[in-house]
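Weekly structure sync - notes
Attendees: PM, LS, DV (DV joined late)
Agenda: review two folding runs queued last week.

Item 1: First target. Sequence and structure tokens pasted below for the record.
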Amino acid sequence: MHRAHALAGQCLGAIAGEMGLAVPHNLSRHKGWVGQLLEQALGADAESLPEPDFRAIGVEMKTLPLDHNGKPCESTYVCAVPLDAGLEPSWEESWACRKLSRVLWLPVEAQPEIPLPERRIGTPLLWSPNDGEREALQQDWEELGEMIRMGELEFITARMGNVLQIRPKAAHSRVRCHSIGADGEAILTHPRGYYLRPAFTHAILRRHGLVP
């Protein structure tokens, strides 16, 4: 947290410069660059493993791009939905639960009119879900997971889930993975990911007094 607070108020360009890294012209072809930069700056070590970013202390790091009103600009990716081998047996044992049990939120300016190198980091927040947040997450996870187990994956849309949603997650539309069809047969489908709705992450920041 000392290192995270030291980043608050700094510009992305300055952080990248201190690390000898180039800043891309824009994020259209460099999705995830901001998160990767800050993970490297803070010493995250999980890479693509199904573990929190900071494995030794069980902390996941998530950047939150904010608009000029302090509202998240987009849904926040949590983790991949395990489709090929079925879902985990319970919320407590799920990858999503492990990722969300302890999160370091790093707000980042994301207004298009601010050049990428000049966008600043906000005040960090080390967060764990309270009882109400945990219950809402678990309920969505269980309801969406039941649809997958029933072979109804193709009927799941981003409109489903109050705080946690499922959306396609792949580098391009040609990527496919195995899942379960309506009759229990193996099918090929697009990879999916769990995402937190912007209203949920905005409520977290508001509850802790970080945004209006």
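Item 2: Second target, run right after the first with the same settings.
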Amino acid sequence: MASKKPTETQNEPPRVGDTLAALRQARALSLDELSRKAGVSKSMLSQIERAQANPTVAVVWRLANALGVPIAELLSGAPAAPAAPTITLVPTQATPSLRGPDGLCELRILGPVEMAGQFEWYELRLQPGGVLDSQPHEPGTREHLTVASGSMELQVADATQKLKTSETARYPADCKHTIRNSTKTAASAWLVVIHPN
């Protein structure tokens, strides 16, 4: 039985040109700059990127060091996906917010969108006379309201509670509930909504 002939791709050396060009461009390096960093001539770099020359292992090692990547990444033919950042910063202007029609109530949505309907948290700002009026959420939903500045009044069904700065109220949110600012100064709070599993 005749053995299968190896395909052409099995006989080809690793294609490092495209990977090299992608890594260099991702780091905003010119051919001159990479040439100086790696100690490899500009003409050689250009030929490698255009697949007109195959670099030696020594040259690949120099390029990998200059680019700060493992040598295997250059030889793999595709740059590795960038690692997820340890810290994700959401700028103030990128934080979505909802305002009441009268402009006296603002809810800044601090929780990530993918957690909506499970666990949500907001910064609530109420100007004097501002009201956040909420219809019942699904059965089993609870809210936690902590006043950060000023004071607020909370009404849950027929119960009413006044809250001062630093006080927290925990209550069922599967019935009609209202948060209002009846004072003459602005107030703010942290509002956490926990939906049932």
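Discussion on item 2: The longest helix spans residues 57-67.
Action: LS to circulate a short write-up before next sync.
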